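Checklist before submission:
- one chain only
- standard amino acids only
- sequence pasted in full

Submission:
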Amino acid sequence: MRHLYVHIPFCPKVCPYCSFYKEASDRNKTQAFLDAVLLELDTFGSAGIQPHTIFFGGGTPSALSTRQLDYLIRGLRDRLDLSALREWTLEMNPATVSEEKAELLLSLGVNRISMGVQAWQSDLLARLGRVHSATQALRSYQILRQAGFRRINLDLIFGIPGQTPAQWQESLLQTINLGPEHISAYCLTYEEDTEFFRQLAIGQLSQDEFQDADLFEMTMDTLTRYGYSQYEISNYALPGEECLHNLAYWSGNDYLGLGPSAFSMVSGHRWQNISNTSSYVEQIERGGNAHSFSESLSLETRLSEKIVFGLRMNQGIAEELLMPWSANVQDLEDAGYLQRRAGTISLSRSGRMVADAIGEVFV
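Returned file contents:
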């Protein structure tokens, strides 16, 4: 097992657009949760786990206090062989960054930070329900650099209700000027079970898909011009700074997930933990697992998923994997959505604009 994910569900505030499992921070639950995560890891044993990458996602992992992060990370370090570890990422909200926390994380082996800035305009941050300001985001970035972090990702969102192309261009340029090694730029999606989805359904919000497409093209052009390579639909990196953990997902490698709602994939078997922190803790404490579902994937399903995720990466996938869909591939190539080069097939620029629809062809 080379890739480990830990889901931290706690957030300072639940954002209206976020569909990931999360809940408001609750100090009465936190210690039991931390113990449950370590106990869940114990159930797998450490003999076959030698992580190359670890990723703390959420939620907001940095919503944990310095003491709590110290407890969890030391607990993992005591249990795991980290001799082959190359990348340890922790997601942070700018409002929860401090000098003490940054120095602790770096000292314990976390070497990459992913920080959710989302926008640099106060009105857009308020619309997204973010608890940080643009000034806080800038200060937090400076704190991380001063602490010694040399690999930082900044998350941005386009397609925010009311966002103008000029605002998006400003956000891109302000981010570029800071010089992060990695930039993730996502189009806002209206996911079920979110407040934004409800507002869209009743007409309080509207979506302009044509402007979203223009903003996506602006993103590709601007970031590429400044030296960031688009190695996946929504992810851009300076040379050699791609996120190794996410590349493992997209390449179909096995991974182990700990915590409520976390997914795992091991030898063609996939499962997800229950999306409820209290129930997760109770089930782990009883000595069982906390799975909400599990499935064994057929070879056909694994191939389909490898193709769908592989096409999202600019490196593409080997032509031979697409042989069962040769007619579909030819049609998509004739339409200008796919391109061939050196034995691989990848999305063209126009194909990236409709990547989700193209992916459905191979499911």
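Reviewer check: The longest helix spans residues 27-44.
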